[in-house]
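Researcher: I'm preparing a figure for a lab meeting and need a structural model of a single chain. I don't have an experimental structure, so a prediction will have to do for now. The sequence is pasted below. Please return the structure as tokens so I can convert it later.
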Amino acid sequence: MKRRMRWLVTLALLAVVVVVWYYIDSNKPSEAGKTSNSQIVSEVDKLLNKDLETSYPYTAREVVQLFIRIQKCYYNETWSEQEFVKLAYMATELFDEELNNANPFDEYYEELKSEVKQYSEEKKIINRTILDKSSEVVYSTVEEQKYASINCTYYLKSNKGTSKVVETYILRKDENDRWKILGWKEYEESEWEK
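Model: Understood. Here is the structure written out token by token.
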């Protein structure tokens, strides 16, 4: 009887050791999943590490999508002055030459800084965006130039609540066959859409 009791106690202890070992092993972070606070890559860092010379967006929708990511960094993320300047330069790389000529970088940057400051004072952020699907992009050709237009819905959140703005982006293909943002304006519903 004593022998049997020792055998059961030994078996129970062995079971406890196996369960504890399994618990410790399953809760240990894997090597691939290990990150320290210094290794977490922010959205600002991800964008600034993107090389547009080698990985320029292929479609008109992807160009606008990248521009929206940059905008979200302006208004929603924390950045240094140097990072902000780099983000602004990156945005202008997505702009058509005509837009850049009509809106020189210094002017664009000052206006952008002012708008970001205003958003900050109003505690306004871009809460959510909805970009038209690829199938909803409107393509056209005018005098052998290819154009595209696409709508993006912005939901802005502030102390005053949530507001909605719809922007229509107009893009044009450049001589390198890259879609570039020619401009944007607030979307206006046509009579039949109302």
